[in-house]
Amino acid sequence: MGLSQNENEVLRVEELSFIFPDASGPAIDRLSFSLNSSDIFFLIGPSGAGKTTLLKLLVGIYSSKDGEIYFQGAPLGKLSQSHKKLVLKRVAMTFQRSGLFDSLTVLENLLFPLRELTLLTAKERLQLAEQILGQVNLTGAESKYPFEISGGMQKRLGIARALVLQPELILYDDPTAGLDPITSHHIVDVILTAKNKKKTATLIATSDLDLAFSVSKKTAAKIGFLYQGKLIQVGTEKEICDSRNPIIHQFTRGLLQGPLTASELS
Amino acid sequence: MPSLSFLTTLGGMILFAWECVLLTLQRKTKWHQVLDQIFQVGVRSLGLTVVAGLFVGAIMALQIDLQLKDFGAEAFLGGLSTSTTLRNIGPVLIAFLLSGKVGAYTSAELGTMEVTDQLNAIRLLGASPLEYIILPRIWAVVISSFLLLIVGLMITIFGGIIFAEVIGVNALNYIQNIPRIVTVWSIVLSVIKSFLFGAIIAVVSCYKGYHAKGGSVGVGIAVQSCAVTNLILIIITDFLLSMASSCLQDIFKVGYL
Predict the structure, then answer these.
(1) Is residue B149 part of a domain?
(2) In terms of DSSP bridges, do strands A169-173 and A230-235 run parallel, antiparallel, or are they unpaired?
(3) Which domains does chain A have, with CATH numbers?
(4) SS3 state at A169
(5) Does residue B83 lie within any of the structural domains?
(6) Domain count, chain B
(7) Could you give the ipTM of this predicted complex?
(8) CA distance to partner chain B, nearest, from residue A238 (Å)
(9) pLDDT tens digits for A142-165?
(10) Separation CA B116–CA B110 (nearest Å)
(11) Are residues B124 and A85, on separate chains, in Cβ contact within 8 Å?
């Protein structure tokens, strides 16, 4: 984690800012960090801190002229649209609300990106899709529609769709939101297995502190605390837990009294 | 200012429609998806259109018969009723119904796709939601609405004939009177209106759904706004076309009534 460029660096964000039209303040405020291959980086923070906005900026759903995002050294802001599209094919993201195509079956949800973005034959596409479904324990659910499977299965399908193109960077937006602890644990296993298998750089935005702290403890992953669009501290699980910053202190301990308002804690 | 906001939306919809026209010219339309959507939005609206058409035709026959009786001119019922239905009331009323059925379905479906990140997922795959999701729906709604309007108009005429029998006007006389008043121009105007109303329903419902924001509340707002915008634009377009038709009639002496 640092600003110096190196061979393993997958993602570097420099002084990135973003403001929504009609908003009074920036949603992302001069934010900088970098991520190497095999790295896991957790982004935690209260509601409205800018976690989802940052992820959407990183994958090009939102765009900003303030600051720069480098993917494997290529500055996204300076690339032509077609080149940028080509570069971003190596980045995948799972969405908080799954983002699954509800008119397509489980299998078709995986085949869609393969059909659109690869030159594989129909047989190869099917083989790869079934292999990835097996990896996330969804074998047998191929012909079901997303609304026919459980929340945990939907999350796994979202992850499978992100994995199917074998990206070099995966962004997870609140992957365990609304799931019970056992299902959350299973999702974490799927994420870590995928990351270890391909040495994929992984960025996880979450409000689930247990998830962030337990994985950070096991893998020495760094955690960044985002507040009002600023990365106010980056550190290990212990450094974040022991932080003297009153905002982080209140958030990690779930205190009602402190600088964070009730709406930010909801 | 609400009027400024309406003009901004109108401008947005024109640009949106233009983008879809350009994509169509670039042969980006996936016609197999258009056929799927025609079944979803068109075929399933056929029953409603038939029922509505029958009653619109009957209401027009009843209303005009009441007026004609005062002048002892019931013989003109077939022509007058059909002409009024074809040129104005029929296309407008059926377009209203379709904006509720087809328009609301399309804007709610697209709005849900937007707020559940399905459209973002497509963007993320380097694909264009306009090409994959919007364009097939636009064409499906244009084609379906146009065909349903044409079917609906034919049914209104049929409804008028049936009701004429009920109120004691000979059906044969009713039918024979139609070509005396209904001209080719009436039919052309009716077809033009049907196409334009279909296009309005398609563009408005896709635009509103595509721009939905903020969860289920956002979808509700998009559907409501779609319904209101459709009604306003259909009424305004009907007025403008009727005015244009009237002017053409004066200049070129075409298509009386």
Answers:
(1) yes
(2) unpaired
(3) 1-90+167-237 (3.40.50.300), 102-165 (no CATH)
(4) strand
(5) yes
(6) 1
(7) 0.79
(8) 34
(9) 999 999 999 889 999 999 999 898
(10) 10
(11) no
